[in-house]
Amino acid sequence: MTYTYTLRNIGTIPVANITMVGDTCSPIGFISGDINANDRLDIDEIWTYNCFATLTKTHTNIVTVTGWGWERERVNGISATDIANATVIVGIPVVPPLIHVTKVPNPLVLSVGGGMVTYTNKVTNPGTVALNNVRLTDDKCGPVEYISGDTNGDSELDTTETWVYTCQAELTKTTINTITASGEANGLIARDFAIVTVVVAPVVVAPVVVAPVVVPKLPNTGVTSARNNIPWNIIVPAGIFAVLTLFYFTRRKQII
User: Fold this and answer.
1) Which of 3, 88, 163, 200 could form a cystine bridge with 149, CB 3.0-4.6 A?
2) Structural domains in the chain, sorted by start
3) Cα 225 from Cα 93, distance rounded (Å)
């Protein structure tokens, strides 16, 4: 069995440091798509990978891809993740279903305090059999409303159709949410997931500057304090000596 993986960038900036991990098939090898050879998935590129496995029974393979936003010549710290799965039937002539969903928020970034976001979800059928009972559920937004896409009105997602759904949510903080799409055919269920992040700008707290408290000096009254290093140990004995001398001469005069 050959698994072929097709990777697209449905955002607005390049994606770097891409990893792709399968739960039961490895290694997953890169085939082509990096047109400018810069190791980043640009919005106009389609990267293709494959993996080979030998199967002896019906098996579902799951692959998870992760990448990081690239802005101003560096990774911006925000990741994107997508999960895809496919079932291969062994032993009976039954065609398994496949389903694919993408999720795009508008806007991608909200200012301080948050605001309203509209999520647009598109569901396609990459398999060979039409899907019925198509359902979408979102872990952070509801209800998810069908808009258009069933061109022949038969309530089945054909391989040539793209069904569009929307959902609105009021966000006050950076939010990661997941949409799950499912459909049925030939008694089997196909599922796919899309995960997106909407960034709400953080509140910037202005710095507070506290001025030091300055204690005013006492006014200069003409009387100095000991802090000015006045030699009181000399002034006090001299004053006492002068008083005693005055008393001595006054007393002597009285006797004479």
Assistant:
1) 163
2) 1-93 (2.60.40), 99-204 (2.60.40.1530)
3) 110
